[in-house]
Write a structure and sequence with these properties.
The protein is mainly alpha-helical. The chain has a domain of 54 residues: Arc Repressor Mutant, subunit A, CATH 1.10.10.60. 71% of the residues lie in helices and 0% in strands. It is built from 6 helices and no strands. The radius of gyration is 16 Å and the shape is elongated. The termini are far apart.
Length: 84
């Protein structure tokens, strides 16, 4: 992105954090987590489909990422959703 905007990587990082309050990496992780939660809550997609759609290397990496963000694995999250 810094190349596209013609600015240094360090400046882009500082600018992004100043305006969002988060590092770019934290912002992306938070956004990805929201996408996963949305898929788990509102779709019947299999975990493997979500893994492929969001570009995770494999289901193991996906599970580790989600557990780090939410404190439970995606299957547990989906199972604990309120029934509507």
């Amino acid at each position: 992105m810094s190349h596209e905007f013609g600015i240094s990587l360090a400046y882009l990082g500082r600018y992004f954090k100043k305006h969002t309050g988060k590092t770019m990496q934290d912002y992306i992780a938070s956004y990805k987590t929201k996408l996963i939660e949305n898929r788990l809550r509102y779709s019947t997609m299999r975990l493997s489909e979500i893994v492929d759609e969001l570009g995770f290397a494999d289901e193991s990496h996906f599970n580790k990422f989600f557990k780090k963000q939410k404190g439970m694995n995606p299957s547990e999250y989906r199972k604990n959703l309120p029934v509507s």
